[in-house]
Amino acid sequence: MKSLLPLVLVLACTAHGEMMNPSPAKAPTSHRFLALGDSYTIGESVDPVDRWPVQVAAALRAKGLRLEEPEIIARTGWTTDELDKAISAAEPRGTWDLVTLLIGVNNQYRGRGLEEYQNQFRGLLNRAIHFAGGVPSRVVIVSIPDWGATPFAAGRDSGKIAREIDAFNNIARGEAMKVGARFVDITPISRRASTEPALVAHDKLHPSGEMYRAWVLLIIPAALDALKK
Fold first, then answer.
1. What mean pLDDT do residues 151-164 have?
2. Does 78 have pLDDT greater than 50?
3. CA nearest to 118, candidates 76, 39, 74, 173
4. What is the mean pLDDT of the chain?
């Protein structure tokens, strides 16, 4: 007499006369990354692969995270109000798991006021939080580097530039702390350009890929914490 075990197994896996198939496993979520800024974010004078948002994405993937290529809204020379207009024109859609914001050097360079910067930066920060699904801790503010330490600034008052950059950064840090966004201070690294030529790009003003790599080491922990939220 043949065993009835195979028949029993078939009946156990059948519902209403049809074979029940296991539910397919869901693919791991791929995170989205939006980077907002100016020449430093778009990586003026370096190859696209050396842009710090691109380096951050690569470093996060190396740690096992699924992350799309960053969407970058940034251009050399932009001030806070120009970035705001560009964001409106770009109309970024959806929600991002990580949003970064680095803006203000051109406000300082053009001699624009701190109060104006604070008001406009606050508006940009609120937009960044909106893009991050209303979660401030998913937003990482990166400090303004000190261009006064570069060869481009030779003959200028580097001390005055440094003080003004610090004042702008204090505003950005304060606004970030108010809402619970993260703040990463890369400015000390930028000041090493005065004694480390390899940290400056060929235009003698913007960071090299090597300097951006040093920034990334500071940004990665904040980005990882942001992605856990």
1. 98
2. yes
3. 173
4. 91
